[in-house]
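I hope you will forgive my troubling you with a question about protein structure. The record follows directly beneath this note:
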Amino acid sequence: AILAVTATQTIVRADSPPADPGLEAISKLSFLEGTWVGSATMRRGPGEPAAMTSRETVSSKLGGRVLLIEGVHSSGSPEHVVHHALGIVAYDATTKGYRMRSYLATGQDGEYPGEIKDGAFVWGMETPNGKIRYTIRVVDGQWKEIGEIERGGTWMPFFEMTLRKEG
């Protein structure tokens, strides 16, 4: 009887691969996949925020282990790119959290922690000017993103984006 139980456990294990935390974690962000277009505003100081036309292209790579996110934001005409970023989101099994590796066309780059919180993907960083966080959520088929900076314990928005999925 013990041999039969052992043989059955071996068969069950062979038929059901072990759970892969990285694949499971990235699949929770699949709501971002696709090409999204719309508009954004960014405040870089006093005065009215700058308006931009935005496109975010998100695709799953490496068999679902990472998300590749490319954001292109232009002002006036599509040729006048004012912000171009590439992000790679992966799951870090050591910290049991997400990591966003970001590259900008300006040459800046960095790696930042992320999490899923209340149905949104939230990632951020510490800067000399204060903490920054970005919150991405899809509401009624629209990508809604807000960028905020913390100063004196108060979070203030400096970036807002609303996109719709193409196709």
Summary: Residues 143 and 163 are 5 Å apart (CA to CA).
